[in-house]
Amino acid sequence: MAVREGSLMAAMAGGGWLRAALLCAGVWLHAADSLLVATMMPTAIAEIGGLAYISWTVALYVLGSIVAGAASGLLSLRLGLRNAMAMAALVYALGCAVSALAPDMAGMLAGRLLQGLGGGWMVALSHVGVTRLFPAALWPQLLALVAGVWGASALVGPLVGGAFAEAGMWRGGFWAFAGQALLL
After folding, report:
1. Sequence-ordered strand ranges (E) for 46-126
2. Residue 104 backbone class (left: φ over 0; alpha: ψ -120 to 50; beta: rest)
3. Contact at 8 Å (CB) between 114 and 134?
4. Along the 184 residues of the chain, how does pLDDT read in single tens digits?
5. What is the rounded distance in angstroms from the CA atom of residue 101 to the CA atom of residue 74?
6. Checking phi first, is residue 40 left (phi over 0); if not, alpha (psi -120 to 50) or beta?
């Protein structure tokens, strides 16, 4: 079977799959995170306290994500796409580490804000990456792939978070996602 020039298969040859996978990984980390954390947070609250501030774990994550998403274009122009994505992944990983090490809710909230900033940058930069790394004819297919990753994370995120919570290892969930961000 011949690969037609301009097709998705032709674009994926020579490293295209790796580029697409990296863009999808940024979306995975951000999208799965909120649902993962939602299922782990009751276990975390039982250990570190702070029930009155539980909604702030989501609010600060979303706030950081929105602010970072709005600034991602500028970040990409100033640093380049590769460096911007690496920085976003490092900020996200740092946020995961701060959350994993949190002795109390204040530490958790600081970590969640950093995770939101890094995650928001990764998602927005993933969309920027689709338009900068691939021909325009492939954008709809690649954006559908990114959307599929987002949808799959809605199913997998709570399952992973629930497994960590059930095992009494909520901190391990944060470490697992920090490790994925460092790989990215």
Report:
1. none
2. beta
3. no
4. 444 555 666 667 667 899 999 999 999 999 998 888 989 999 999 999 999 999 999 999 999 999 999 999 888 999 999 999 999 999 999 999 999 999 999 999 999 999 999 999 999 999 999 999 999 999 999 999 999 999 999 889 899 999 999 999 999 999 999 999 999 9
5. 32
6. alpha
